[in-house]
Write a structure and sequence with these properties.
Layout (H helix, E strand, L loop, with lengths): L1 E3 L13 H12 L4 E7 L5 H6 L9 E2 L6 E4 L4 E9 L6 E4 L16 H10 L3 E4 L9 H6 L9 E6 L14 H13 L2 E2 L2 E2 L4 E5 L12 E3 L7 H11 L6 E2 L4 H20 L1
Parallel strand pairs: 1-2, 2-5, 7-8, 8-11
Antiparallel strand pairs: 1-12, 3-4, 4-5, 5-6, 6-7, 9-10, 12-13
């Protein structure tokens, strides 16, 4: 199963439509693919807006009472609710969040430890993303290594982190993430063993058109969907199961959009 859990659709969740987005995801992830849609911040609800869009041809099945994920039987594609949690120390994904619920609930970002506790209360899968890129947790966790045990996976490749913008997006962020995983996380070290943490690659795309640019191949071991997904992500240590392709143009468009938003706020 091909899995890309780190996607934001377009600015504020814009997309070409439910069916069209499913077609894009299917073209890259294939039969049985899984993709995540990330809500950002306390007021964002792009996952909820997307899955409640009216489809024209594809059936849409909410498979649990909390609407943590949606299944499209015609393509055997699943869409999972994700929150990109943004504590003061750096970002992580909480995968499999209930619809409407959120970890970051007000304008003040939570602390990492409070956010992790809340994610655990929701039984969310916790994934460290772009650890050595902008807003990454890599340096903080290197200094506070026991907290690594709280996570299920480490994003060793982020397709959008391949873009280099001096002073904004650092050089070699993915290489640093991969080296750190190989040399520290997936080893027994004097500081302990963190080998229960899986390795993953995702897109971190900001348009629907790039869903599935990068993904992680996991095994379907049966059982409940989210438990299967968590097990598959945690158990992957093999970089050969990671499809790693850059999404530089999409990342550049996102940076341009963010710069315009900042400029409008300054001028307002």
């Amino acid at each position: 199963m091909n899995v890309d859990l780190h996607n934001h659709l377009g600015p504020n969740g814009t997309n070409p439509g439910f069916d069209e987005t499913i077609d894009i995801a299917y073209s890259r992830l294939g039969d049985g693919g899984i993709f995540g849609i990330c809500n950002d911040g306390p007021d964002d609800s792009r996952y909820e807006k997307f899955v409640n869009q009216k489809p024209e041809k594809y059936e849409r099945i909410f498979t649990d009472d909390f609407k943590k994920y949606v299944y499209v039987p015609q393509k055997r594609i699943s869409i999972v609710k994700v929150e990109e949690v943004e504590p003061r120390e750096g970002h992580f994904l909480a995968v499999g969040m209930p619809s409407i619920k959120r970890i970051w609930k007000n304008k003040n970002p939570p602390s990492l430890e409070d956010a992790l506790k809340s994610a655990e209360d929701f039984d969310a899968i916790k994934i460290i993303v772009h650890p050595f890129s902008r807003d990454g947790l890599g340096e903080y966790l290197n200094e506070n290594f026991p907290l690594l045990e709280e996570f299920d996976a480490w994003e060793v490749y982020n397709a959008s982190a391949e873009l280099l913008i001096p002073g904004l997006l650092p050089k070699n962020a993915n290489k640093k993430a991969q080296d750190y995983y190989k040399n520290f996380i997936d080893q027994n070290t004097p500081l302990g063993s963190f080998s229960s943490i899986g390795a993953c690659a995702f897109t971190d795309g900001h348009s629907a058109e790039v869903i599935g640019t990068s993904y992680t191949k996991i095994k379907d071991n049966g059982g409940l969907f989210l438990l299967m997904l968590k097990s598959g992500i945690k158990q992957n240590k093999n970089f050969d199961n990671l499809y790693m392709q850059p999404a530089k143009k999409d990342a550049l468009k996102h940076c341009y959009h963010m710069a315009k938003q900042i400029a409008f706020k300054i001028l307002a």
